């Protein structure tokens, strides 16, 4: 039995408390039900890896605003940079009067993204916008129309990004028709590979590409393949280096551009600045957002210079794209990550979480798999280890109970049966251990012990 003693989690009321209940009533009256909420309360203060709500309850954050807060909540250096920027100017629109932080951030991303080839970068507001513009650029450069994404992939909620996404509920149901010339390919899922070895699974999926080009869309009609190097919303599904390199080789064979969607995996989450570094592949285009700006809305498309030059002036951009506040926040985040040992910290966090998750897999019947890369770790919840039947209901109950105990965790996966960890990389060892104890206590209550 794990200890129930808490130091950082402080629960003064039930969740939601009285003030949160008042705000919930106002929300119900004025906000539509569509925007989902994981924790039924409202934040008042956030710092590092801790969240305090309006009733004074303090939570440990293992969700990180869905991977947006790798640098932590309100990092002082970012806050100070934003204050300085606010005293100068808030927004002029880069398309009207330019500003240096935009150019400085472009220079920085051109330097740190994978590959030594010449690159160029421009900015938008969200991951979905970055995805859509990467597709526009790929189509413009190649003169082709078709785009291939992968089963279980998630690329956003706008029309084209939603079309690229591979989960019907809640992302696509009754929101069609979808964008044309979008196709889905298989992506290896070794835990559910039906007894195949990872090598056999990779070989089968890669071989399907050739048939795909015969049966679905001609290779010379395909502008780009877009891939998450580790699937995020799809359940933290991690491919092999062999598979990612195999996809890149197919792209090179047929003149197809390779777009890496690093929106959730970027900026230290996997123990490297970008997850593609694990696989030895330099993408033609890379899209970024989330933890780039420490919570400020900003996204980026970086790519080979000749590809990025394909659109004519005025054909890409946006009123708020690369806002001054977003740019100065991003510059400070990258400075912190390069100077403060964030990558080593992510790997240490991940090692500890995965060690604990593997214990859970051995101890509990319903923990079917434990997997991770850097600080991007997950457990998969099943009804039975043999059949591997997903248990969506138990997963939701685990997540909800953790939240009631002061630990914010998120679910994911095509079957909604994965508990994922996206804690800020500034989380302390004590906070991490306390959060893992809460999760262990919840699993002990809700899961069946494995037979010795």
Number of domains: 2
Mean pLDDT: 96
Task: Please tell me what the overall shape is.
Answer: globular
How much strand content do the residues show?
15-25%
Task: Give the H and E element order.
Answer: HEEEHHHEHEHEHEHEEEHHHEEHEEEH
The parts where pLDDT drops under 50 for at least 5 residues are none
Largest sheet: 7 strands, mixed
Nearest-angstrom radius of gyration?
22 Å
How far from one another are the termini?
A: 16 Å
* CATH top level class name of the largest domain: Alpha Beta
Question: In CATH, what is the homologous superfamily of the largest domain?
Answer: Type I PLP-dependent aspartate aminotransferase-like (Major domain)
Number of strands: 15
- Named CATH topology of the largest domain: Aspartate Aminotransferase, domain 2
Helical amount: 25-40%
Please state how the strands of the largest beta sheet are arranged side by side. 4-10-9-8-7-5-6
Structural class: alpha/beta
What does this protein structure show overall?
Pathway: Amino-acid degradation; 4-aminobutanoate degradation. It is an enzyme of class 2 (transferase). The chain is of the alpha/beta class and 452 residues long. The chain has two domains: 18-61 and 342-446, Aspartate Aminotransferase, domain 1 (Alpha-Beta Complex); 78-339, Type I PLP-dependent aspartate aminotransferase-like (Major domain) (Aspartate Aminotransferase, domain 2, 3-Layer(aba) Sandwich), CATH 3.40.640. The protein has 13 helices and 15 strands. It has helices spanning 18-30, 64-67, 76-86, 100-112, 127-142, 159-164, 198-215, 241-254, 305-308, 324-339, 342-363, 392-404, 429-446; strands at 43-47, 50-53, 58-61, 119-124, 146-150, 182-185, 222-227, 257-261, 285-288, 299-304, 367-373, 376-381, 407-408, 410-412, 418-421. The strands form three sheets. A seven-stranded mixed beta sheet has the order 4-10-9-8-7-5-6, with helices on both faces. A four-stranded mixed beta sheet has the order 1-2-3-13. α6 (159-164) links the parallel β5 (146-150) and β6. α3 (76-86) packs antiparallel against α10 (324-339), α7 runs parallel beside α8 (241-254) and α11 packs parallel to α13. The longest helix has 22 residues, at 342-363. It starts with 17 loop residues before the first helix and ends in a 6-residue tail after the last helix. The model has no long low-confidence stretch (mean pLDDT 96).
